[in-house]
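Schema walk-through. Below, the input block comes first and the output block second. Nothing else is stored per chain. Lengths vary across the set, and this one has 157 residues.
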Amino acid sequence: MLLSFKNDAGNNCGVFLSMDYKNKITLYSTATKQRVIKQMGHNFSEEDYLLFTIYNSNDSMYYVEASYAIAGKNTKGWISKKTKLSVFSKAYNKKMILYKSYSKKSAGVSIDYISKELEVLNCHDGWLKVAVTVNKKIIFGWLPPEEQCSNPYTTCN
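--- output ---
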């Protein structure tokens, strides 16, 4: 049983394919989508979910390592930034702070703990730009690495 979650991904970002995403995603050999390497999706019958480490990106694609939480089967390739990637907040029983930029010196918005998935929009030096809906309002901000949880089983709480 693999179950390795990369919350300590250094300058990279650990995320997972949104739990409500039922389709397969396509991994490409290049950011220009020259060749399909593999198509992957959650294995719901085995409760084996698809995890990613984001290593690099451009305007429209992420370079990732994709693996199943239990079976492993690591594959590196490029995926579209339109892929529904998610992360949970570790801010359990405390306020979650989303920063205006990827620095704690920037202004932040304080939000009560949210147990639902945060939509991932970008990755920079381990920080994740996320979006979350609170009281019918979408809030965007940067989540610091130590507040990220890429474990879809425990949500790190």
